[in-house]
Specification:
mainly alpha; 85% helix; globular
Length: 516
């Protein structure tokens, strides 16, 4: 609980700043050509970061580092981290240079629909060349973050993404007149944020006594093990992002603005996904790795059950609220300036489809460590490949009749298949058994979430809709809607015994005493 709260609190701060960033982007760029080009340029290094850096790399490195630290001591773990960093720095530099050189081919592969619009395609290429070096910087930062997580210091790695949003906001507001407009300013902000995050984590590692010195890269047995496990995890750990990349490809073939309205809908959906899924998954992986290394299989199963329970506690009401009230959320957050009423309606419809898959997205992040902690990255990748094929098939079938909603719905359906497959295989192998407490509480949480959603609809019909639509009072109306949802879910859930607030408070107190 302490580690989840630490990661979740910093992630929440980053997401709040991210919303401020996206509000400004919507105001200045709307959902037009420049916005579409920038989001493609941003998606590419972001996707590769989640695959090479925070996704597959963490899935392979953190268990190996934690197990080495527990079994062989600090010296061996320090050598493993330094050797891995040297190899990563070498090949990431080559990858960044290749990406900049071959950016036209990269943009064509990610957004083939842009090829029919030469100006849009050229802008995406220029922006992509500016943002691509971010990949090298952030992947090295991910190594330092994984090492800090492995020694139980979750705060610095969780805090680093705050700098991403700070740099982008500062660049948008300060650099736009100097570099050719808002889209170029945002692209430069991305790369600068990579430098800032790397410096922050390097300083945190040095302060913890784990500063690393890069040497000539050598592929030692330990490094070979990390990268062998990492290769299949390139797909397995990043299946959600891969499916979202497929969404971009399909959306580039739809009417102008489709990439942008999907981006804004996904940004809202990513708030609970990032705060809950990333926090629980990040804290769970080193815990499971230590327990399994020490032969505590029963404790590992219990940890997985409590992680699922904690995720459901927060994810189910979030999904119910976003499905019930997508319009007010999108309108208040982004409905201003160049982002008009039609854009709001299109984005809100996509948000409903994304939110229906929110529990599945989070479950994938929670269940995957059950494989990674055992050194098994092969099984998740096979499941991910099947989910990707399904996602492409669903996209092709649904994009015609449902446009951008079909793209979002395809991702949701693929996520549910992915989560269900992971759960079934963990169960069959004896690595996970839902205990009586989890089984009893899940349906109560779902019932409380549905009751909350019904209450929100009634409140909107009774007058909150008018308040949200009134200029100057929109934020107050949305805040009232959120507060009402929290109160309804908290009261109904406690009445149904879906959770016990005393347990939640008990879990939060240690984090407050230790400062996170």
């Amino acid at each position: 609980m302490r580690n989840v709260v630490t990661v979740g609190a910093w992630t929440m701060a980053s997401r709040v700043l991210g919303f401020l960033r996206d509000i400004l982007i919507a105001r200045f760029l709307g959902a037009g050509m420049a916005a579409d080009a920038f989001f493609v340029a941003l998606r590419l290094p972001g996707l590769l970061r989640l695959l090479f850096g925070e996704g597959s790399f963490n899935a392979a490195f953190v268990p190996a580092f934690t197990a080495t630290l527990a079994a062989e001591g600090e010296g061996a773990a320090r050598r493993l981290a330094a050797e891995t960093a040297a190899v990563m720095a070498a090949w990431l530099t080559l990858l960044a240079l290749a990406g900049v050189l071959f950016m036209p081919a990269v943009v064509w592969g990610l957004a083939p629909g842009f090829a029919a619009l030469p100006a849009k395609f050229a802008l995406a290429v220029r922006l992509g060349r500016i943002t691509f070096p971010y990949l090298m910087l952030i992947c090295l930062a991910a190594l330092l973050g994984g090492m800090l997580n492995g020694i139980g210091r979750f705060g610095p790695a969780a805090a680093a993404p705050v700098l991403f949003n700070v740099c982008m906001i500062a660049a948008l507001l300060g650099l736009s007149p100097l570099v050719g407009g808002p889209a170029y300013a945002l692209a430069w902000g991305v790369t600068v944020s990579g430098m800032a995050q790397l410096c922050l984590l390097a300083a945190a590692a040095a302060a913890a006594g784990w500063g690393l010195r890069l040497s000539w890269p050598r592929v030692t047995p330990g490094v070979r093990l990390v990268f062998r496990r990492m290769v299949p995890g390139l797909v397995g750990a990043g299946v959600t992002q891969i499916n979202l990349a497929v969404d971009v490809i399909i959306a580039s073939l739809l009417p102008a603005g489709s990439v942008s309205v999907l981006y804004y809908a996904d940004r809202v959906n990513q708030l609970p996904l990032g705060v809950i899924g990333a926090a629980v998954g990040t804290a769970l992986l080193p815990t499971l790795s230590r327990q399994l290394r020490l032969g505590e299989a029963a404790a590992a199963r219990a940890s997985l059950n409590r992680a699922i329970e904690l995720s459901a506690l927060l994810t189910l009401p979030a999904a119910a609220a976003l499905i019930s009230e997508p319009g007010p959320v999108i309108a208040v957050l982004f409905g201003r300036g160049a982002f008009g009423a039609g854009d709001v309606a299109r984005s809100a419809a996509a948000l409903v489809a994304y939110a229906a898959g929110l529990p599945a997205f989070v479950l994938v992040k929670v269940l995957a460590p059950g494989f990674f902690a055992r050194g098994d990255t092969r099984t998740p990748v096979l499941i991910a490949l099947a989910a990707m094929v399904l996602n492409i098939g669903f996209n092709l079938a649904l994009m015609g009749p449902l446009a951008q909603v079909g793209v979002a719905l395809a991702t949701t359906l693929a996520a549910w298949v992915n989560a269900a497959s992971l759960g079934v295989l963990l169960f069959r192998r004896g690595h996970w058994r839902p205990d009586a407490r989890l089984a009893a509480r899940l349906w109560r949480m779902a019932a409380a979430g549905l009751a909350m959603a019904a209450g929100l609809r009634l409140a909107e019909a009774a007058g909150l809709a008018g308040l949200i639509a009134t200029p100057g009072l929109r934020w107050a109306g949305l805040a009232a809607l959120v507060a009402l949802g929290l109160a309804l879910y908290g009261g109904i859930g406690q009445g149904l015994r879906a959770f016990d607030w005393r347990e939640v408070r008990a879990g939060l107190r240690p984090a407050a005493r230790t400062g996170g």
